[in-house]
């Protein structure tokens, strides 16, 4: 909002303190909560621009649009100026830029000849003085501006156009909509400088011979949409230009002057923050005003000439049947004030803010009025502003106010009350403000206050509707006391060292281990296709679909990590990167019956393809196989330190995995994951050759009990080993044999290692040879041969009895 320093001075005596300047006022306001973005004067950069009086105007002999003017500029002799403005005429007071003058854009005016005729200067329009085209009065939009007859030739033009006035550009936040009016700003400045604003009393002169109710009736369909609606009738008005003082105030505020009636409504908008609308009473076509919601199919042509299609989301003012205005946003073209208007129906209302905001956004019609309805208005001045506007129409348009106000849902605004203690104020601000200072601050703000034993009972007027809670009062005290006067203190709190929780530490160790094992981290999309989401699943679940997916490929929350990693491998293979090893730690999502949100579960997965060891002059290349992946998983699970035992079980029915090269990973018999070869048909879908992968439910890993890490010294006593070669059925797997050996091996058995598997011509059909190394160690004494031999024989006997092995 643009605030005129001179206008503000009408309410607050800014001249009482010589130290108050526009710049210092801007600084004080910024430091008390209302930011002033800029302070500027219209005359800055301009010079030698004066009032001129046209003594004669004749057509240029060598042009069909130029005129030769003899202009009195306050000197002994008139000066000749050639001008092309279509509205220039004799006996006008005009704006003249003398030779050597600077106009907007830093353009310099020089003496010269225009088509053979001397021109000693330039007759200026408002735009050439820096006024925006959108604020130039319509009458002078295509020509020069004509000053009032009382302007004195030869004097500087700036005071007449209020260009010597300082304009403060305020940045008003939504919570301080009370400052979207000159009166609101006056109260704020008064609080800053401890002055009480004074406003001229409006004395209303009504014609008691007629009543407004005889002219118009008002109905409101929904009081929630329109909490207050009021209308006055002013008759016998004469439409003309507004006085220059009003025009300049409007232009400095960024509003285009139209005519005296419309300008009065805009002037009141700026002074009170109360939007008004003036209807041409005779063009309403009815004596009834009905405010209601729009109907589908209805249209209204607004003042900008655009046809607006209405809906039930819009509030409209109708003449009982058809819409004549888009309530709170813009009036209708058919009922606008025109040159022949005689009777004015003046509207002053309060409309529901959310609906006005939606309507303004829907039609892209942001206006000064809609902005104030959106943020809130002072409900105590709805009728006062209407009365003031009506009285101005008497004074400036020669009108007569018909007695009475036709109202619907008249508001009776009440003061609000809040309590707060001195300790609460000082405790929040870290200050030691006295009770007397707090009382003085509230009084400077214009609040009623009573104080007793550290408790303040504060009465807030309706003009400060933003204050509703205790914290608001504390902010008001801080603002007026001065933010720069608040003491600087460091917060006192207990230091909390940053650290990872157990789950975060486990994820970090998992990442480090897998990267150490040669896998690179990948991050795949959480959203995928329904088909890929349901592949490689570790539990049964329906897919969680998006209601409005951006694409079909990103429509479903994943239920596995492996399919995303396979996409990443395919991307690498397509770019000639043949040896790929990737892992991902992320969440999968399972739908739970009866629940709105899916179950989120942390998983870790990996994919390996190509060569594990590349060929060079020292060694041949080695391709990734099942045991490569199993070795990575064994090391990872060993790192976790489970108190339970890990085992592997053949899996023949896992979706997307090779039935003969896939194993389930079990922790104390409970499945926590799987590893193996991607089924060749599934790999073909991803354009891949032999590929291996794994996926583990990391949430189960986190929840499983784990043994603390125990560091031991190097054994002092030597250990012993025993080798055995077993001839067993092909159906017996390594897991079964290892489990039995460890169960029967005795307390000194430390480890069991498979070091040879043979299945060839020298072995009978259906059999295979498996060789194991058993490692024994007693950390407290030297083992003797008899102890190891006895334990070894127990293992051998158990294997023969259980699996009918032949010890070779």
Write the layout of secondary structure elements.
Layout: E1 2-4, H1 5-8, H2 22-31, E2 35-41, E3 47-59, E4 67-72, E5 79-83, E6 93-103, E7 107-108, E8 112-114, E9 117-119, E10 122-123, E11 166-171, H3 182-193, E12 206-211, E13 217-220, E14 228-235, H4 244-252, H5 260-272, E15 276-280, E16 288-293, E17 299-301, E18 307-309, E19 315-318, E20 323-326, E21 330-331, E22 344-350, H6 353-363, H7 368-375, H8 382-397, E23 400-403, E24 406-408, E25 416-421, H9 422-429, H10 435-444, E26 448-452, E27 455-460, H11 470-481, H12 502-516, E28 520-521, E29 527-528, H13 530-533, E30 556-557, H14 562-573, E31 580-590, E32 599-609, E33 611-613, E34 622-623, H15 626-640, E35 646-650, E36 657-667, E37 670-678, H16 680-685, E38 691-697, H17 698-703, E39 720-729, H18 734-744, E40 749-758, E41 767-776, H19 785-803, E42 806-807
Parallel strand pairs: 12-23, 13-16, 28-31
Antiparallel strand pairs: 1-11, 2-11, 3-4, 3-6, 4-5, 6-7, 6-10, 8-9, 14-22, 14-23, 14-24, 15-22, 16-19, 17-18, 19-20, 20-21, 25-27, 26-27, 29-30, 31-32, 32-38, 33-34, 35-36, 36-37, 37-38, 39-41, 39-42, 40-41
Helix pairs in contact: 4-5, 5-8, 6-7, 9-11, 12-15, 18-19
């Amino acid at each position: 909002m643009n605030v005129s320093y001179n206008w503000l001075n009408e309410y607050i005596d800014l001249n009482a303190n010589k130290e108050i300047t526009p710049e210092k006022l801007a600084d004080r306001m910024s430091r008390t909560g209302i930011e002033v973005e800029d302070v500027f004067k219209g005359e800055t950069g301009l010079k030698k621009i004066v009032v001129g009086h046209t003594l004669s105007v004749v057509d240029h002999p060598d042009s069909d649009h130029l005129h030769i003017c003899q202009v009195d500029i306050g000197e002994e002799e008139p000066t000749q100026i050639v001008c092309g403005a279509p509205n220039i005429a004799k006996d006008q007071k005009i704006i003249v830029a003398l030779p050597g003058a600077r106009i907007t854009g830093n353009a310099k005016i020089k003496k010269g000849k225009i088509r053979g005729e001397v021109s000693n200067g330039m007759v200026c329009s408002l735009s050439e003085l820096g006024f925006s085209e959108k604020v130039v009065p319509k009458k002078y939009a295509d020509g020069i501006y004509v000053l009032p007859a009382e302007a004195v030739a030869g004097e500087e033009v700036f005071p007449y156009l209020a260009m010597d006035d300082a304009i403060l550009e305020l940045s008003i936040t939504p919570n301080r909509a009370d400052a979207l009016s000159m009166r609101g700003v006056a109260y704020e400045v008064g609080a800053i400088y401890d002055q009480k604003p004074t406003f001229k009393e409006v004395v209303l002169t009504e014609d008691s011979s007629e009543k407004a109710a005889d002219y118009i009736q008002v109905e409101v369909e929904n009081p929630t949409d329109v909490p207050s609606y009021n209308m006055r009738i002013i008759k016998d008005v004469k439409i003309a230009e507004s006085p220059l003082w009003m025009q300049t105030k409007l232009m400095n505020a960024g509003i285009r002057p139209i005519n005296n009636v419309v300008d009065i409504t805009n002037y009141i908008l700026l002074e009170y923050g109360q939007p008004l609308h003036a209807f041409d009473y005779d063009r309403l076509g009815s004596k009834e005003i009905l405010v209601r919601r729009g109907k589908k199919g209805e249209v209204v042509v607004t003042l900008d000439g655009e046809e607006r299609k209405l809906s039930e989301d819009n509030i409209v003012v109708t003449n009982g049947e058809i819409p004549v205005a888009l309530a709170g946003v813009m009036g209708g073209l058919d009922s606008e004030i025109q040159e022949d208007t005689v009777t004015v129906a003046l509207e002053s209302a309060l409309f529901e803010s959310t609906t006005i905001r939606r309507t303004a956004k829907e039609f892209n019609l942001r206006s000064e009025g809609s902005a104030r309805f959106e943020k809130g208005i002072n409900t105590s001045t709805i009728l006062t502003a209407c009365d003031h506007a009506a009285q101005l129409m008497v004074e400036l348009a020669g009108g007569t106010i018909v007695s009475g106000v036709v109202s619907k849902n008249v508001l009776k605004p009440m003061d609000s009350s809040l309590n707060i203690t001195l300790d609460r104020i000082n405790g929040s601000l870290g200050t030691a403000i006295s009770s007397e200072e707090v009382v003085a601050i509230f009084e400077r703000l214009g609040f009623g206050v009573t104080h007793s034993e550290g408790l303040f009972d504060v009465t807030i007027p309706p003009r400060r509707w933003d204050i509703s809670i205790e914290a608001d009062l504390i902010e008001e005290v801080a603002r007026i006391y001065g933010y720069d006067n608040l003491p600087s203190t460091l917060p006192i709190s207990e230091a909390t060292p940053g650290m990872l929780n157990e789950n975060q530490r486990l994820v970090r160790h998992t990442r480090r281990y897998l990267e150490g094992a040669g896998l690179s981290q990948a991050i795949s999309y959480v959203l995928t296709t329904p088909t890929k989401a349901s592949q490689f699943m570790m539990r049964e679940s329906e897919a969680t679909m998006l209601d409005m997916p951006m694409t079909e490929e990103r429509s479903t929350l994943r239920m596995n990590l492996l399919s995303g990693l396979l996409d990443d491998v395919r991307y690498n293979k397509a770019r000639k990167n043949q040896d790929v090893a990737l892992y991902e730690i992320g969440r999968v999502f399972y739908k739970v019956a009866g629940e709105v949100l899916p179950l989120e579960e942390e998983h870790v997965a990996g994919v390996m393809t190509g060569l594990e060891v590349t060929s060079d002059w020292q060694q041949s290349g080695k391709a990734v196989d099942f045991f490569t992946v199993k070795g990575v998983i064994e090391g990872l699970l060993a790192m976790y330190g489970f108190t339970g035992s890990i085992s592997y079980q053949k899996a023949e029915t896992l979706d997307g995995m090779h039935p003969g090269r896939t194993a389930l990973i079990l922790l104390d018999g409970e499945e926590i994951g799987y590893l193996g070869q991607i089924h060749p048909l599934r790999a073909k879908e991803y354009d891949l050759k032999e590929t291996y992968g794994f996926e583990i439910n990391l949430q189960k890993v986190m929840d499983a009990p784990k043994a603390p890490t125990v560091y031991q010294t190097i054994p002092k006593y030597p250990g012993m080993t025993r080798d055995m070669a077993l001839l067993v059925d092909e159906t017996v797997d390594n897991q079964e044999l290892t489990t039995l050996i460890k169960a029967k091996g005795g307390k000194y058995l430390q480890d069991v290692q498979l070091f040879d598997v043979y299945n060839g011509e020298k072995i009978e059909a259906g059999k295979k040879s498996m060789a194991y190394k058993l490692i024994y160690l007693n950390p407290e004494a030297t083992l003797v041969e008899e102890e190891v031999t006895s334990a070894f024989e127990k293992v051998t006997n158990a294997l023969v009895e259980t699996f009918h092995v032949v010890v070779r």
